[in-house]
Amino acid sequence: MVPDLTSLEQGKRPDEEASSIVLELRKSTCAYEAGRPAISDISLCAHKGELLCLLGPSGCGKTTTLRVIAGFEPIIGGEVYLEGQLVSAAGLLVPTEQRRVGMVFQEYALFPHLRVAENIAFGLRHLSADQRTTQVHAMLVMTGLIGFERRYPHELSGGQQQRVALARALAQKPVILLLDEPFSNLDPDMTGKMRQDLHDLLRRTNTTAILVTHDHDEAFAMADRIAVLNNGCLEQFDTPEAIYHMPSTPFVADFVGQADFIPGVVENGKVVTEIGEFPNQVGYQGGAKVVVMIRPDDIHVVPAENCSTRILARQFRGSENLYTIGLPSGHIIHSSEASTNVYPVGTRVALEVIATHTVLFDQDKIQQWGHSPPPDSDATRGTD
Amino acid sequence: MTTAIQRTPPLPLAAFAFTVAGLITLPLLYVSYLALSADFTVWSRLWATRIPELLSNTAWLAVGVAAGSLVLGVTLAWLVVRFEFLGRRVWEWALVLPLAMPTYVLAYVYTHLLGSGGPVEEAWQALVGPEGRILSAQSYAGTTLVMTLDTFPFVYLLSRAALLNLNVSYEEMARACGASRLSTLFRVTLPLMRPAIVASLSLVILYVVSDFGAVSLLRYQTLTYAVYQQITGRYDQAAASVLSLLLVLFALIFLVAERWFRQRSRFYQTIGRYRIPERKPCGPVGTILITAYSTLVLGAAFAIPTLLLIQWSVASVAQGALDARFVGFIWNSALLSGLAASFGVLVGTPLAYLASRWPSRLNVLCLQAAYTGYVLPGPVGALALLVLFSHLAPFWYGSVTILVIAYIVHFLPAGLQSMEPALQQVTPNLEEVARSLGLGLFRSIRRVTLPLVRNGFIVAWVLMFLQSLKELPATLLLRPVGFDTLAVRVWLEASEEYYQLAAPSALLLVLLTLPALMLLVSKDWRAA
Which residues of B touch A185 (CB under 8 A)? Predict the structure, then answer.
């Protein structure tokens, strides 16, 4: 169950042991103040060797979820299981030190009074001196920190500090590794490389890990599965691909990438909108008012003199151009074009919609979520 | 650009600090010169007679008081920061109150309390019979007790601040690494508090070593007391300076040890999130235990002595003790202390700032130089200034100026002890940001550094004010003729065991320092 150093280099595939569930949260609720839960009814699980991301905006409860797993916060409802053992429930809290969770804080929390090697050895008290030295050395090798063992934390760079924090957490062979925004204190130029390094390391050691982040790119790059949280509730728990292409709520759709919502009406088994017809995959009844989620990479623009659709703005992003397009109804939609396709602002364009997959939501749901309601409901019929 | 600015400090600042450091070391150098130029026979005579006893007396007292205030200060700080119990807020500030109690006031109260035929002995004899004896205040144990009760708030204050400033992530991390609560306390929390604890203990030890008031009233022979006796009783400047040099060396050991510990690790505020640890609610049993413990300590250190002083004062005032002379003593005390504390902060700031921002050898040396004032206990500093001024500036001799200078030289380190950690807590980045936003050096200090360190500076001012107000030996030796302060009155009258007569001055001394103490625990002052 625990990452074994001898097998580190072989790199086991996580799905070989996919059946073993390391962590399970069942309808867990945690409240700092009575009546105002910070998270409510969160259910999710992590398999051996899996990397899970908790994704959401600040204040969504992702860090609270992590702290619940670590045992820093008690829960008032539901259960938390680690390796099949109940560790948290209403009135039950197995102390953190008995959970064998590895923790990497946002600011790393390296003990400033201890050297690198002493930091890494902190959780290894139960070992003999020899074993401890061996284990610390193995961790130093694994994280590429050989030569730094006598340094104090303040003598290290941010990336080195992160690796010490990782080494310290992994040294005690944790059941699960918890990472709280581990890249937020690092130079953005370095995070791409460091994400890759961390990903490789976790794979190599077959470590089960939970990573908290507010950055969907980070979640997509790292995660096997992503749990999207909002306002203390779990919105969706799925693979990165499903989260992106088949978001289950408008919030998820909007949070994990640029998305536009175009109102439409179901007519003759099709969803009719201002920019074209879409398949009615979910099976709405005729006349139902729905909203189609569409991403910029599914829309292309072609200059056309006689159209009333116009380019309002262009944002150059290096590998692409992101166009903001105003529809005749007043709706705004975005299109992603190759970086060489440059059209001036004001160009009249026709839209080509590639709708291999559509995501439909109730219009009510959109309004509840707080997205701006359609400015003109007649516009839904005014398609070309 | 900022690196270029940062590499060397501005010249006027450095020049000022250098001058101040030079002036502050002058008395020390002069005393050393006097001692080393003393006749060899003086040395051998003293070595054969007084020195071994004085050294061991002083050392044992320092050890006993340090141990006592460590236990009291850290446990009390721990209780008020980490636990929630009935009356916690009141206790939190009340535990600072003993700082208002000068050692000689506590000493004279305890001479009465523990004296032969005193209330404690009477109570004890009622319990075990007329043969029962208690420890005398005029003994090692008695002196240690009095000094401990008087100095533990230093440890309490700095430990409390350190605990409040402690990022709880470190403790959570330790728990995640499998350490139990107890183990976390000893392996993480206390080591992280170490700079504060070592700093406060060195403060306590230096305080004990240089104390004159309590040991003189309790007739406990330490080096400081002996120096005073040599100056006043025998007018023997050579012997006084020899003992002074020993005293200085003794104190220096603790100063160097403290510096060495502190330099080993520099503690900057953790970046990122910072959370205050939650207070653990106490049940009735816990509340009773904590309250009993705090009551015992505070009762012994403050409440009982104060009640006794009030009782005596009432009797004394009834006999007409409040007259124009008395008002004069008050004015003298307030004037001297206010001047000393204000000039102390002004003089100390550039020193501490330079050493924490540009820790070059010279700048650190300047700061160390400022600390030499503290290894000059009252009588020693007074001796040096006495001889210096009579040679160099006889017209200032016996003036208020010489007293203020003596206070600054003596108490600047007390201020620096809290100014320095405050400055160290501001990461240099913050100032660099300010300067990158176009603020000049002095404006960035005023708008960024000062607001951040303000609380530490307030504590510094208060500490210097308190100590100046209570200062005794230098005042006794250097005051202008007829210029008595409250402290001087208390000591003179208590020496003759006129307990009632001394009480109004002593009580007023305690009351005068109270508003200043309130500053320390005011709302703003969360964790200096």
Answer: 271-272
